[in-house]
Amino acid sequence: MEFGVLGGLSVEDSDGRHLPTAPKQRQLLGLLLLHAGEVMPVRTCVTEIWGERPPPSAATTLQTYVMHLRRLLARMPSIGSRGAAHNRLRRTGQGYLIAVRPEELDLLRFEQLVEQAGRAADDATVARLLRRALALWERPVLADVRTGPVLQPAVTHWEGRRLEVHVAYLDARLRLGRYRDVLAELAVLTRRHPTHESLHARYMTALYQTGRAADALDVASRLSGRLARDLGVAPGPVIGRLQSAIRHGVVAPFPPVLPSLPGRRRA
């Protein structure tokens, strides 16, 4: 059995996909899976689905949604009974909890791989593990699920987490001297995040190390213009020092601009 939130919502078993079709049930399942193993209070679930002014029947309707999700789980061969489905989707105290094993949920597999990379002794292993972690992401988190006031910040958090890990992956490859190999990824990431200074610093370094000093300085110029136009600020000292080093031809092989690998974080 596999659950997925890194992209579209997915629930798959040996006999195929098992997904609720009702938007609010999908929203509830996405919320529970994004916080798998944690109790989500009834009030939090209600707020996610109906906002700050839920109908009087919200708590009762939520129970109905949970019942439908349990029926869906009970039809899966790897669960196979109502009792087992209740054990998976539990009412605990003042809320609900969905229990999954780490290997069953792509988000937990992602975090396991990142933690393994954090313990790795060499950059080649770090890069290999983080590449596997990033390969689990197909699209933005819960891309096909409507998000409310609880889910939206969580989705934003995990998208930030994805970027952190992607940067750590690029750092490992840069430390291995794979400057040319990361140019395309850094070009895409700096376009996607036009005011992200550390990404631009990495892009400038890779360009310089592949003999493209003028292009590296152009990247700094575009960043400066975007920061001034959008935020009314100038680049920080890292960009300034890197510009100066490029002009003088003294850029060293890639040093980490930020701590290389972020620790585990939950939304």
From TrEMBL:
Pfam families in the cross-refs: BTAD, Trans_reg_C
InterPro entries tied to this protein: AfsR-DnrI-RedD_regulator (IPR051677), BTAD (IPR005158), OmpR/PhoB-type_DNA-bd (IPR001867), Sig_transdc_resp-reg_C-effctor (IPR016032), TPR-like_helical_dom_sf (IPR011990), WH-like_DNA-bd_sf (IPR036388)
GO molecular-function terms, A-Z: DNA binding
DNA-binding region location: 1-100
Keywords, comma-separated and alphabetical: DNA-binding, Transcription, Transcription regulation, Two-component regulatory system
Keyword Magnesium in record: no
Domain OmpR/PhoB-type: 1-100
One BP term from GO: phosphorelay signal transduction system
Family affiliation: Belongs to the AfsR/DnrI/RedD regulatory family.
Listed name of the protein: Transcriptional regulator
Upper taxonomic lineage: Bacteria, Bacillati, Actinomycetota, Actinomycetes, Kitasatosporales
